[in-house]
Write a structure and sequence with these properties.
It contains two helices and six strands, in the order H-E-E-H-E-E-E-E. It is α+β, with helices and mostly antiparallel strands. The strands form two sheets. Strands 1-6-5-3 form a four-stranded mixed beta sheet. The longest helix is centred in the N-terminal third of the chain and has 12 residues.
Length: 87
C-alpha cells in the first residue's frame, strides 16, 4: 500500500487539476469549491478514485486562481496537488 501511495503522490504532484466554475466580478465564485468538488473533478479528469476526505482544505475555495492543496494518501505520504480554478 505504501508503494502504491508513493506512486499516486508522484502522479498528483506532476499534474494540475483545472476546475471551471461560474465567477462574478473580481474573480469571486458563486458558491465555493469544496473537497467533494475537487474529488469528483479529479475522478473525471484522471479516472483515479480518491476519497474526498483525503483532500485537505483549510477553507473552501471562493475565488479564481491557482491553489496548492494537500492530499493525504497514506500515513506520512502527503502529496501537494495544484488546483487551478477558472471562470
Amino acid at each position: 500500500d505504501l508503494a502504491a501511495a508513493k506512486e499516486q503522490k508522484a502522479k498528483l504532484e506532476s499534474m494540475t487539476l483545472v476546475l471551471k466554475t461560474k465567477a462574478g466580478e473580481g474573480g469571486r465564485l458563486f458558491g465555493a469549491i469544496t473537497n467533494k468538488d475537487i474529488a469528483e473533478e479529479f475522478k473525471k479528469q484522471t479516472g483515479m478514485d480518491i476519497d474526498k476526505k483525503k483532500f485537505v482544505l483549510d477553507a473552501p475555495i471562493k475565488s479564481v486562481g491557482e491553489f496548492t492543496i494537500d492530499v493525504k494518501l497514506f500515513t506520512d505520504v502527503v502529496a501537494k496537488c495544484k488546483v487551478n480554478v477558472v471562470a
